[in-house]
Structure to design on (328 residues):
């Protein structure tokens, strides 16, 4: 009887539920901070990648070359201050790269406000180039003196050596223009001059650049949009054809262009006849390299910069006389 009462009393006691949890088994564990750190690292890496791509896109090839050489410099040479011993120094093209500390327009984030733009150094001719062009100049001078067809017009022919090569100019005279007013057809005497010069240019392997120039009188031909730019360009091409007629090889020409009145010989008199001219530049090797490196932008057919002591002591240009007539 007592055992039965004990069992009934036990059945009436409240039941307790025991829940056992494993350590670390929390619902909020799915929202911990580990993934946030990984995501932040990913975003930082992407920002660095896009910043690098932007810098590469806004940096010129000269700056890239300088940066590459900086990181390729051996530490021993860097600490000793002797950077000329680097293996990469021989990879620099003469007259090519610039110091990456320089600032100039278009350098992106490396440009400093109000900093003066650096100017490319003018090409420096070699002694071999100078000797070759001096010999050509002497030959042309002799032709002008001894060939009657040229001697009669020697007052309209100028020959000089510049920092970019040998410049030959045929200029207008007041009484004897090369072209009729507003015309692109050479007068017979101008064809004779250019034909005689064309054959002599084959004596050197140097390439040439040809430019036509006018005075500042606006073109009055009546055709819409036709200006001294078109006129000077067509005159330069007419000169090219005359040079080829005289025997000059076609592959010698690198550039034919018109410069209108932007480079007058006599700036104080923009209407002077000598401003109307044909310029032929026999380019030295340094000027040719600059032409191909910069896409033609580095070559100025009327470069009047000093050519250095060696060039200044060269034979003086053929004397020029005459004064002018009035139109393009």
């Amino acid at each position: 009887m007592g055992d039965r009462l004990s069992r009934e009393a036990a059945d009436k006691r409240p039941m307790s539920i025991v829940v056992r949890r494993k350590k670390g088994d929390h619902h909020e564990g799915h929202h911990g901070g580990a993934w946030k750190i990984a995501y932040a690292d990913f975003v930082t890496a992407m920002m660095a990648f896009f910043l690098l791509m932007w810098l590469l896109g806004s940096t010129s090839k000269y700056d890239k070359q300088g940066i590459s050489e900086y990181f390729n410099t051996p530490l021993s040479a860097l600490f000793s201050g002797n950077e000329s011993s680097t293996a990469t120094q021989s990879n620099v093209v003469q007259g090519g790269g610039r110091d990456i500390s320089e600032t100039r327009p278009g350098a992106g984030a490396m440009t400093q406000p109000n900093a003066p733009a650096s100017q490319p150094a003018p090409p420096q001719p070699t002694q071999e180039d100078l000797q070759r062009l001096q010999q050509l100049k002497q030959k042309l001078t002799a032709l002008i003196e001894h060939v009657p067809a040229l001697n009669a017009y020697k007052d309209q022919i100028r020959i000089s050596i510049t920092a970019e090569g040998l410049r030959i100019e045929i200029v207008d005279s007041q009484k004897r223009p090369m072209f009729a007013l507003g015309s692109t057809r050479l007068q017979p005497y101008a064809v004779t001059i250019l034909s005689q010069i064309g054959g002599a240019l084959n004596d050197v392997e140097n390439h040439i650049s040809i430019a036509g120039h006018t005075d500042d009188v606006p073109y009055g031909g009546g055709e819409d949009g036709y200006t001294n730019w078109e006129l000077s360009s067509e005159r330069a091409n007419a000169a090219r054809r005359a040079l080829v007629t005289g025997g000059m090889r076609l592959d010698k020409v690198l550039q034919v262009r018109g410069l209108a009145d932007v480079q007058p010989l006599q700036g104080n008199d923009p209407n002077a006849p000598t401003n109307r001219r044909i310029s032929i530049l026999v380019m030295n090797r340094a000027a040719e390299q600059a032409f191909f490196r910069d896409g033609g932008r580095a070559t100025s057919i009327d470069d009047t910069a000093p050519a250095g002591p060696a060039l200044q002591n060269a034979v003086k240009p053929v004397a020029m006389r005459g004064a002018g007539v009035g139109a393009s």
